[in-house]
Structures are given as C-alpha cells and as structure tokens.
Specification:
about 400 residues, alpha+beta, FAD/NAD(P)-binding domain, 5-stranded antiparallel beta sheet, 8-stranded mixed beta sheet, D-Amino Acid Oxidase, Chain A, domain 2
C-alpha cells in the first residue's frame, strides 16, 4: 500500500444511481461541499435506477414510522416540487389498488389504514362498480384510490441532478470501482481501481488498488453491491446485512394505440413485491410487471460491475397472462412483448417479511464520516431526495 498514490478529497459518493445523485446534489448545492461521485459503470443510472417502474409512490404500504414510510412521504413532496421547478417530465395520474376477490378486501382495508397512519392524503375506498366506471377495462370488487401517486421520467430526473451537482463543483468519475477500504485512525481510506482491470480478476488473488482516496465523508450508495462493498471495508463494527436479489421482468402491451387504463393499477401486494401491476410511461406506453424471481450465487465482480442477467425471456409471459387477467380480463393472447428487467437490492429473502431501509452511520460501525445505505429498493426512487436530506444532515452533524 505504501507505493500506491494517495489523494485527499472532501466527500465521496459511491454509486451514481438516483439516490447517489440526490446525495451528491444535496451535499454540493445545500451544504457547499466538494463532492466526487465514483461509479463502476460507463455513466450514471445504469443499475436499478433505470430498471424500475418509474412510479412516484404515495407511501401506503410501509410500516408506521419506518424509514420507508417517512422517506417516501417526504420524498414524494420533494420530488414533485423538484420536478415542477426544473420542468422534469412527470404526471400525477393516481393509482388504484384493487381487490379482485372478496378474500382480498380485508387487505385493502388494512392498506388504507396504514396509508392514513403514514400521512398519505386523499386515500379513498371505492366499490368495484365505481372503480370500473373510472376504468372500464378493470375488473374488481373493491379498490383503493391513491390520487397522490404518479410517474416520472427517471432519466430526465437523473440528468437534472447530475447537471445541478456538476454546476456546484461535483466531479463524476465513471468506469471507476471502489474495491475496498481500510481504517486509518477513526476514518476510512478507499481503494480505487479502473473497472476494466477487474474484469479478468480470478477471484482468488488479492485486489490491489491503483489509487487510495482519503476522504472526510463517504456515502456508500452502491445499490446492489453496497453490502458486498461494506464487507470489504476493514475495521467496520456492526452487522452488515445479507443481500437478497429479487429479479423482476416487465412486459409491454403491443398493438394498442389507446391505453386501456389511465391510472396505475396495482393488485394486492405479494411476497417480494407489489404484484404484477400496470404502469404507464409519459408516452402512454403500457407496462406490466415486475414479477419476482429470487436469484443467488452472485460473485464479487458481478456485483461490483453490475454484471447481472437483465434479459427477459419471452416465455415468462405465460405466467403474466393469468395474473393480469385477474383485473384486466380482456387482455388478448399474444399482446405481451418482452420489455426489460431489474433487480431489487433486498435484505430479506423468500417468505420473509420485507426489511426497512438501513442507513448505517458511525454510531453503528464506528467509522467517522461514513454512511452505508443498504436495501434501497422500492420506494427508493420516490424517497431519493428525502434520503439525501437525511444522510447529509447525519454527516454534517458529525
């Protein structure tokens, strides 16, 4: 390590997904800090941030006073305000969560109770007949209307965050991997390599950094690889959660000039996700998904370099049709085309209760100026600015 060049920096944000970009913006714009964002990919937003439903969630589903509930409600307000101020394409189209059988009605009642407790305004239960007047292609026995839900162009959002951060002095270093770190006193030093140098790594020889960064503040916002990376930080106290990866595929509706729905349509939540739901993009394209496929045996390099299988097998459509037809019975055979896939960075596995976001600071791991963000799955996009606000305040207090 003595021969490795070293460089002092103020703040390092690891990961240029929407949360990392929001943190970089918050630190540079609001707190006037010099920020360096490093990402193993060739540009920003190549992972989970560009492979989701692009939905602005209201904050209904999450346990009272959980970080997911608090950040989602606060983040939604911040996100709508930011989109309006910066002319980011978005639309508050509303959502219907539907019960397609009488056995699901109690779950719908529980959801409205939870949403109200979380501070979500405007929620209303409606009979199936009223919901089906609103959406004639829908079939349900009861529905929960969430008018605060919406959609956003995530690429435009991220592009705006990048531009604003850069205009306030933030530097972006792509194709750059943080491969580990070590403690020096009460602070962490980061081990940096070009991403290309990792592709031929045999996973058995030690990884040697090409550069060591000595930062005052570090935010590990590496998404899918955040826990894996944290384990490679020497001298960390406290438990680092185990990663669970849930792959989800989306299919698009073809041969339809007029969308069958004008609202987001969601079934009752399922194990590992919110069910195969209907989302619309800002061009009117209808998407169905995501489903849940648990994957494991992810190696270090695949995790670091986002080398996941994002292909969509057209045969998976066979599983989509019966799920969708529970609420959209007129879905025609052959009308689903493969869209795209994403992977949720989860902290719990199959048949386990969903985990909350984990924001791990010095009080847990003992390293000053370091915050680890674990399990930032849905509603991570909606929560991004609230997470940034919280993380920045936590770091600046230190």
């Amino acid at each position: 390590m003595e021969s490795v060049p070293k460089e002092r920096v103020d703040c390092v944000v690891i990961g240029a997904g929407v949360v990392g970009l929001a943190v970089a913006r918050e630190l540079s714009v609001k707190h006037k800090r010099e920020v360096l964002v490093v990402d193993s990919g060739p540009t920003f937003g190549t992972g989970t941030s560009s492979r989701n439903s692009e939905v602005i969630h209201a904050g209904i589903y999450y346990p009272s006073n959980s970080l997911k509930a608090l950040f989602c409600v606060r983040g939604r307000e911040l996100l709508y305000s930011y989109c309006n101020e910066h002319e980011i394409p978005h639309k508050q189209i509303g959502k219907l969560i539907v019960a397609t059988g009488s056995s699901e009605v109690p779950k719908l009642n529980a959801l409205i109770t939870q949403g109200i407790e979380n501070g979500v305004d405007g929620l209303r239960l409606m009979e199936g007949s009223e919901a089906m007047k609103l959406e004639p292609e829908l079939q349900c026995v009861k529905a929960l209307l969430s008018p605060a839900s919406g959609i956003v162009d995530t690429h435009s959002l991220m592009l705006s965050l990048v531009g604003e951060a850069e205009s306030h002095g933030t530097t972006f270093s792509y194709n750059t991997s943080v491969i580990g770190g070590h403690g020096e006193g009460n602070h962490i030093q980061l081990h940096i390599s070009e991403s290309s140098s990792l592709k031929n790594w045999d996973a058995s020889t030690p990884l040697h950094p090409e550069l060591i960064l000595i930062p005052r503040l570090v935010v590990n916002s590496a998404g899918l690889s955040a826990p894996t990376l944290a384990r490679r930080f020497c001298s960390l106290n406290g438990a680092i959660p185990t990663s669970s990866y849930a792959r989800g595929c989306y299919f698009t509706l073809s041969n339809t000039k007029i969308p069958p729905f004008h609202h987001l349509i969601y079934p009752i939540p399922e194990d590992g996700g919110l069910g195969v739901h209907v989302t619309l993009d800002l061009n009117g394209q209808v998407k169905f998904g995501p489903d849940v496929e648990w994957i494991d045996d992810i190696d270090y390099i695949s995790s670091f370099l986002n080398m996941f299988d994002y292909s969509v097998c057209k045969d998976r459509a066979r599983q989509f049709y019966p799920e969708i037809r529970k609420y959209y019975p007129n879905l025609k055979d052959g009308s689903l085309e493969p869209g795209y896939a994403g992977i949720r960075p989860k902290l719990t596995g199959p048949k386990q209760a969903p985990a909350d976001f984990v924001v791990q600071g010095e009080d847990i791991h003992g390293i000053a100026g370091l915050v680890n963000l674990f399990g930032i799955e849905s509603p991570g996009l909606t929560s991004s600015m609230a997470i940034a606000e919280y993380v920045a305040a936590k770091l600046i207090r230190q």
